[in-house]
Amino acid sequence: MKVKTLVAVLVVIFAMTLIVGCAKVPQQELDAAKAALDAAKAVEADRYAPELFNAVKDSLNAINAEIEKQNSKFALFRSYSKAKTMLAAALAAANNAKDTAVANKEKVKAEANDLLAKIGPAIDDVKKLMKKAPRGKEGRAALEAMNADLATVEASVAEANTALANGDFLTARDKAQAGLQKVAAISEELQQAINKKLGR
What we know:
- The protein is mainly α and 200 residues long.
- It has helices spanning 2-22, 27-42, 45-48, 50-71, 81-132, 137-165, 169-197.
- It has 2 domains: 2-103; 107-197, no CATH class.
């Protein structure tokens, strides 16, 4: 009888050991997901695919919370299967954020180049219009203000070119875009003044 009881206890202990052995923190999967997020950060996914990047960060926070939840349970009742499923999804999402960021970066670079190619001729056109603008007292003051604005745009274009050369395509695009809009506004204002002068 004592032998049977001892065998039963040993079987239970063995079974408990197996269960506890299976319920381990999925550290390898966690490390892989974190490495994938770091790789996405390295290609500036936080800037060029921010929604995807932030979603992965939120997922990892939720995964860590799930792992902590399981860690707080008695060893026999721990299960990391949900965390493993979440980690697989987070890994795929991090890789997607990385790939999307690379594609978006190239797209923004092309947009920046396109805008910078347009802004030079647009500034030249404005300078030609300035020669035709009215030169009265009010006209002179307006032209001085426009010249100051144009100088600011040219400085911004120089900054955009520097940003482009340094691989900061978002800054380059945004500066070029703002510059082009300002030049368009100056051009429209000049054209209206010229038309008024000509009695149109």
